[in-house]
Amino acid sequence: MSLSVRRMPQGTPRLDAIACRTSTEVFHANEWGVSWGRAIIEELKEVALSSDHSRARLCLHPKPIDVHQEMLIVMARSAVELPQRRTLGFDTKVAVEGQAKLRYYSPNGDLTRSVGLGGDDSIYVHTASSEYHSLLVESDWFVFLEILKGPFDSSTTEFAPWALIKTKEKP
User: What is the DSSP secondary structure assignment for residue 122, as one 8-state letter?
Assistant: First the structure.
């Protein structure tokens, strides 16, 4: 099955007009307060289709050092998110399009609960920093806002050790 991306009319805002690309699948807004809509989502989907990770994001905060961080994230069904937790702050998700399951795990890797996002399920979920969690995309695309406490520091994301072991074991 191939994923489709809706073509938008000419003259609609483009990512390169409101943001700069900072990596293969990440854009940072040029300034706080950028507006985005369907055209930006569709362009992010195009980026995700060419990404090794089947995802793309528009950071709505201009700099990684900003203390408040908001991201518009698109993930294709094939995207894989390893169980992780934040060691600083929180993780809030707001569903925009599609459906996913947010799965929570005990420290030893047992599934403790699952929250549906999008569709007829929850639209908003707030995760405490101590909980391992991962997203499982259930529709062709899942689009959501993620809100975190900054500044960005990759060392504040802790991947579940048991998930890393399972990943290394795969052929």
Answer: B
pTM of the model: 0.87
Mean pLDDT, range 147-162, rounded to an integer: 86
Coil, helix or strand at residue 67: coil
User: Is the separation of the CB atoms in 144 and 137 below 8 Å?
Assistant: no
d(CA 18, CA 79): 25
Residue (of 61, 158, 54) closest to 100 by Cα position:
54
Terminal-residue alpha carbon distance, the chain: 24
Q: Which pLDDT belongs to residue 82?
A: 93
In degrees and rounded to multiples of 5, residue 33 shows phi and psi of 90, 15
Instruction: Please give the pLDDT value at position 6.
Output: 60
Count of other CB atoms within 10 angstroms of residue 11: 7
The CA distances from residue 92 to 65, 145, 155, 165, in Å, are 18, 8, 19, 27
Cα 140 from Cα 3, distance rounded (Å):
7
Measured distance CA(133)–CA(113) in Å, rounded? 10
Closest CA to 69 of 148, 129, 128: 148
pLDDT in tens, 13-43: 689 899 999 999 999 999 999 999 999 999 9
Please say whether the beta carbons of 134 and 142 come within 8 A: no
